[in-house]
Amino acid sequence: xxxxxxxxxxxxxxxxVHGWGSHGGVWTDIARALSADYHxxxxxxxxxxxxxxxxxxxxxxxxxxEGVQLGFSGPAVWVGWSMGGLVALAAAQKYPSEVTRMVLVxxxxxxxxxxxxxxxxxxxxxxxxxxxxxxxxxxxxDRFLSLQMAAGExxxxxxxxxxxxxxxxEPPTKALQAGLHLLMEEDRRETLSGVAIPVLVIxxxxxxxxxxxxxxxxxxxxxxxxxxxxxxAGHAPFLSHPEVFLEKLKDFIRx
Length: 255
Known about the structure:
Layout: E1 5-8, E2 13-17, H1 28-34, E3 39-43, H2 61-69, E4 76-81, H3 83-94, E5 99-105, H4 123-132, H5 137-147, H6 155-165, H7 173-185, E6 199-204, H8 212-221, E7 225-230, H9 237-240, H10 242-254
Parallel strand pairs: 2-3, 2-4, 4-5, 5-6, 6-7
Antiparallel strand pairs: 1-3
């Protein structure tokens, strides 16, 4: 599976994995800041951005992690945002000697509520998104992007998310549906105790897609985890609070 990558800088490897409906361009500012000290790899996941024409036969975190891993050699710090967090978790289990540290941003082991999991959206929300994509494509994506904003958060963040989503044309419906199915089906709670590397969990205190309770759960269940909450941030703290985010990220990588 061939996907698009951008690489910059020199030094230890850092991989930045984006979320559903987006592409690697959402990391541009963070990648630029890190490239002064690190070799930064930023992929576009299959069906997204400049990888829009590449779709694997199975759309799972393991398959996506394999596609990302082909883009570089050697151990790396994996940073995964939202759906990218599931990909990073899969990489840590699939390639334990290649993932030295992991940063989970706005991430959760399970995106939908169940009787034993309140820290998530109602399953009907994602189901409605999936049904609406074919009928109201643009409106559905706008509603999803709006959920990534915290109340009162700078609207520039929403504009940036929207600009990046459509920078290389409309994301193919097939890829978006596959990603939504992944988010609806995935549950990685039972695998967390086996992740034997240092992990930084960075989360917005006002995240509406992945409530902050999910971040606290990750920090409790991952054996070597540190939790950093940015209280006023929504789902994309690296866009809404870039200075704070970078400080926490760099401190963790340098440890």
